[in-house]
Amino acid sequence: MPSMLPYHEAYSFGCYAVIIVLGALSCLIYHIIKSNNQESTADIPPGSQGLPLIGETLQFMAAINSGKGFYEFVRLRRLRHGNCFRTNIFGATDVFVSSRESAKAILNNDSGKFSKRYIRSIGELVGNQSLLCASPQHHKLIRGQLTNLFSTSSLSIFIKQFDKLIVDALGGWEHRSTVVIQDEALKITCKAMCKMLISVESGYELEVLEKEVAHVCEAMLALPLRLPGTRFYKGLQARKKIMAIIGKAMLERRRGLQANGEDFLQRLLDEDDRACNGATTNGGGLTDEEIQDNILTMIIAGQDTTASAMTWMVKFLDENPEVLDILLREQLGLARKVSSKSFLTLESINDMPYASKVVKESLRLASIVPWFPRLALEDCEMEGFKIKRGWIVNVDAKSVHLDPTVYNDPNKFNPSRFDDESKIPYSFLAFGMGGRTCLGMNMAKAMMLVFLHRLTTTYRWKVINSDVSIEKWGLFSKLRSGCPVTVTCITENVIP
Questions:
Q1: For heme, which residues are the binding ones (predicted)?
Q2: Which of 13, 165, 327, 396 has the most Cβ atoms closer than 10 angstroms to its Cβ?
Q3: 438 is in an annotated binding site
Q4: Long-range contacts: 142-149, Cβ < 8 Å, 24+?
């Protein structure tokens, strides 16, 4: 191995060097512009804009590069300034709000004052035509085209396919000394999403997609520097490779060289053909760019977030044996109803009331997506403070999920807290709310339930690394350890 800094350390050093240089330049002009910046701050959220040009970006990047994750940046400022505060990241003013009332006003967006807005690096990596970046009107059009893909009939087909993948994957765990849950979950969910979306389930293309999607995710919070060797540049190159695979599949199908009638891509292409022939009444199909950007978005959403949630769920259950005992009784009861030779169905999933609460509590406590950013389209007021047009307003979902006025003992893993489904509105935001609620919400829940059923009825497990450090540079909350476990196959004499 050459005697030099590892890639990630060299890259981190480069990022910090760039920011420090900018910071030094900012300091030179700070006192000059300070005298011209006497605008009253009495009515705007408390906080700090940091240094000119870079704001508090340096502190934000330090949090990303720590074992506590980027939410630590938010947590510390909320403790310092209160539940509504202002900061500056990547040159934009960001306001964080954490009340349920604010969450309702922003996510419902009945007044049309907000639009979804992610930082520049995310937008460039997933694509401008992605649901994540679309303007309100454009989002409505794209969502209308994609909604039918997540119908009940599609979900029923997917559950059986996913169950087969899980059974095959878990079958190889028995003779392994250690299983890293996050690594295995990523492989399973990537394969499931690629099969469902573009009928890729094995071979070279699946390996490329799994590898390059990971690079895209790792670059989402990087400085948007298009310089070879940077994390962002590597993410852009990964995006190009993914787009090439999707584009090739589209071209071959249009030429009749490839036909896969059951996957999402084919259904989108068929809809496009019908629109060209005037045989549709829903406004036409999606453009090629819209199809490609949103297939990439769905792969990321279905793979990365779901795999992270599965990993946290395994960790929480290991730490709470009394919860696992209740869950195991339910799942063994279901296993006795289902033939050992058949796969789970939508009806099976609906027969898991306690497991559904385990999934929901895992999502609450882990808060895989900790906040939802929106762009203020006009001046408005939030939590008693003035919000200016052009500011980014972030709904702090993690803070809502840990609100002691809503959840008793909020840091405790307690699925039974969801026995009463009439919980206070806008207190559970794992999938967002309003018009931009996650399209694949039911699919993600189904994946977690299928995984949970097969894992609990096949193995006992023990987590061998309880480290709760968060993976660096991740947009989603991932355990840095990956949650390594040892597994023991369940036999009749150990079943309670």
A1: 438
A2: 396
A3: yes
A4: 142/286, 142/290, 142/294, 143/435, 143/439, 144/282, 144/283, 145/268, 145/271, 145/282, 145/285, 145/286, 146/294, 146/439, 147/439, 148/267, 149/264, 149/267, 149/268
Per-residue pLDDT of the chain (496 residues; tens, 9 = 90+): 433 334 444 444 455 555 555 554 554 444 444 434 444 566 999 999 999 889 999 999 999 988 888 899 999 999 999 999 999 998 899 999 999 999 999 999 878 899 988 888 999 999 999 998 888 889 889 999 999 889 999 999 999 999 999 999 999 999 899 999 999 999 999 999 999 999 998 899 999 999 999 999 999 988 888 999 999 999 999 999 999 999 999 999 988 877 666 789 999 998 877 777 655 555 568 999 999 999 999 999 999 999 999 999 999 999 999 999 999 999 999 999 887 678 999 999 999 999 999 999 999 999 999 999 999 999 999 999 999 999 999 999 999 999 999 999 999 999 999 998 667 889 999 999 988 899 999 999 999 999 999 999 999 999 999 899 998 888 888 999 999 999 999 875 444 4
Lateral strand order in the sheet of 371-376:
85-89, 92-97, 392-396, 371-376, 114-116
Tokens of 256: 């009749």
Considering Cα of 287, then 293, then 295, then 301, what sign does the dihedral take?
negative
Q: Which residues contact 304 (CB under 8 A, 6 or more apart)?
A: 186, 189, 213, 217, 476
**Of 113, 109, 36, residue with least CA distance to 388:** 113
pTM for the full model? 0.88
Nearest to 448, CA basis, from 322, 328, 263, 311: 311
